[in-house]
Design a protein that fits this description.
The protein is α+β, with helices and mostly antiparallel strands. The chain has two helices and seven strands, in the order E-E-E-H-E-E-E-E-H.
Length: 133
């Protein structure tokens, strides 16, 4: 679904994307973690992630060492509660707005890796290769 918002000087195309995430505990399993947000269709992954972080979508855990990975068909980033910025596993221009190979993100999923060392999670995920058919 696309929405058009009037900016100060031009029309800005907005679209909705779905966010999902893993549970952090048994009690957290009782809730649906699906959220729909509006993003500018010209945003890069860093701008999309900044919007998600601004709404506090990922829960904080006691001890302050939650590790998450973000994926859309493949891992895109690792987010650690103890880090100030995410570690990108994709180019910072992803999903390549205004390019012929633009990727139309419809849903982003956050996988919870408990308190695993985020550097270890990054090292494992950066070697991920999707299966080609």
């Amino acid at each position: 679904m696309y929405l058009l918002y009037f900016g100060f000087s031009n029309l800005v195309a907005m679209k909705k994307i779905v966010l999902t995430r893993s549970s952090v505990s048994m009690g957290d399993d009782a809730f649906d973690h699906t959220v729909v947000i509006d993003i500018n269709e010209e945003w890069t992954i860093l701008q999309i992630m900044a919007k998600i972080m601004a709404i506090n979508y990922l829960p904080k855990i006691q001890g302050g060492k939650a590790t998450w990975s973000l994926a859309y068909h493949e891992p895109l980033a690792v987010i650690a509660q103890e880090w100030d910025t995410p570690y990108l596993l994709c180019p910072d221009t992803y999903p390549y707005p205004n390019e012929k190979y633009y990727i139309n993100i419809e849903k982003l999923n956050f996988n919870y890796h408990a308190q695993l060392d985020p550097t270890l999670v990054s090292d494992v995920l950066k070697d991920f290769r999707p299966v080609s058919y």
